[in-house]
Amino acid sequence: MASIPKTMSGILIEENGGVEALKWKTDIAVPELKDGEILVRNEYVGVNYIDTYFRTGLYKAPLPLITGKEAAGIIAAVHPSVTATFPALKEGAPVGYVADHAYAEYTAVPAEKAQALPEGVSTETAAASLLQGLTALTFVREAAGLARPGHPESQGKLGVSEGPWALVHAAAGGVGSLLVQLLVAHGARVIGTAGSAEKVEIAKANGAQWVVDSRNEDVVKRVKEITGGNGVDVIFDGVGKATFEGDLESIARKGTLVVFGNASGPVPPVDVLRLGAKNIKLMRPVLFGYIATQEERNSYTAELFELIQAGKVNLKIHDVYPLKDVARAHSDLEGRKTTGKVLLKV
Ligand code: NDP
Question: Complex ipTM, two decimals?
């Protein structure tokens, strides 16, 4: 058994706040394993917008907090209670996970949230794909109800015969890049939005057939033009406050509005009577509700890795920052300077 130190480096949030709240520490106690847990020596940590919500306090967690929701690395220890149920989780095996407390050298992970990595999926790929990839995949299938490509029911719950119109905000971002690729693969006609000329090109490279520069063009007007006045059948909106009102205008009759993030701030309370004007379905899904069972988690993760290995989903890594420089990573993410995935190297 590899020797495990008593203390480790990591990022601690002692008080909520700006990026200065992310404190680099070198004397954090290495977690002791409880029933059902494995200890992972993290190699790569994925940065997600949700990490900024836990930093600022928009989402609450007890302090002091080691935040971070996904990472991949090598299993350093396994609690004896784990082995019978999860035989693939062996000491020394590479593993990825979507679970708490990833911004550190070591993380104690509930075994059911860890995935032994198949051959050909590196720890870097796993940390770059798990949370955002599972979000995009489950939202396309379960929130929008689009069936797997080639499936006889591929018209899905959107109720349109073929080629539903989809609008994806921040289509050059982490989740947005993956949503665009998956929607195109599911036969949708995809309009992306992106906040600069460079990002417009990235969103196009992701497969969006039309991309609107959200800082220089009127998104609602362009969506109406592109769809011949119809509007879009489904909207994926991780931007939130700044785009919600426009979404109500851009959506088609009987459309599905999937609001799933707060990059510009949370959407204020909504008067549901407004949905009646076009019989809009409004959703506010959270990934964890779609991967709550072991079966859901395993099957979606296996499919995601297959899509990546087959080259059907491409990952774009914006940059790999040292864990110590996580404040810069958060600044860049919140400052709309990143495209694709932001990673930390432990
Ligand atoms: P992104 O890489 O998409 O970064 C956010 C992007 O939002 C920016 O690059 C920017 O793109 C756009 N944006 C528009 N307005 C603002 C603003 N005022 N401030 C900051 N960014 C803005 O991040 P992620 O892929 O990590 O996450 C995207 C969204 O998805 C987040 O809201 C996140 O919380 C949500 N999410 C929700 C999940 C769930 O389960 N509900 C799971 C995973 C993510 P541009 O400049 O092109 O407009």
Answer: 0.99
